[in-house]
Amino acid sequence: MSTSFAIVMPVFNEGENLQKHLSQLRAIIGPSVPVYVVDGGSTDRSWAILNSLTSADPSLHVLSSGKGRAVQMNAGALAALQTSVSHLLFLHADTVMSAQAWQSLLKCLTYSTLAWGRFDVQIEGRSGWLPVVAWMMNQRSRLTRISTGDQGIFMHRSLFERVGGYVNQPLMEDIEISRALKRQRDAVFLAIRERLITSGRRWDEQGAWSTIVLMWHLRFRYWRGDSASALLDRYRDVRARKKTP
């Protein structure tokens, strides 16, 4: 069975590095792999930059949707599924893929096409805690089969259709789709050890240790049954207090 990919990338105010990241990605995946970039109402130059790139890249498809990664990724996936692609890869705009990671993914899927999974991740930033954070993310995901969006979630198109895509909620959409995919008994989970490099700006801006504590606190509350909306209010409240002099 042949394997073909479409990459779906949600974007919100990523104009500063958007062109560089898309150019790096295109150099690795080649000219024919379609990339669906979905802007969630950016207020910077993201939309203008994206549209300026389409003339030179016919495999780049630019869409707009409501704000929110779940909404944006579903919009991109639905557009991609109008074609004959067999697999979807959801990649954040501030995540960099290496040629080794891409080739490892293609190789893995030659042995198991009805699969879903993620990559290991490396977090790039100033804090000395970031290698620890990345190690914990990778090990936890390998044990639980719960993936984060930073790790680049991929899946066969039929699995996306079976689970109904991402649940439309403001946080923890990656946890929900991982849970749904885990329930597909004929699906194979792949934890690819090649690393994606993702931005550590969240940890740098808000403080590494306080961000670690906050994220684990939110995950624990979500596991206990708190809604994603309630967790978002908590997350916003913490960020607002940090910005207050």
From TrEMBL:
SUPFAM superfamilies: Nucleotide-diphospho-sugar transferases (SSF53448). The keyword Glycosyltransferase applies. It is found in: Cell membrane. CDD domains: GT_2_like_a. InterPro entries: Glyco_trans_2-like (IPR001173), Nucleotide-diphossugar_trans (IPR029044), Trfase_2_rSAM/seldom_assoc (IPR026461). One of its GO terms (molecular function) is transferase activity. Keywords: Cell membrane, Glycosyltransferase, Membrane, Transferase. Transmembrane segments: none annotated. Residues 7-134 form the Glycosyltransferase 2-like domain. Its main location: membrane. NCBIfam families: glyco_like_mftF. This is Glycosyl transferase family 2.
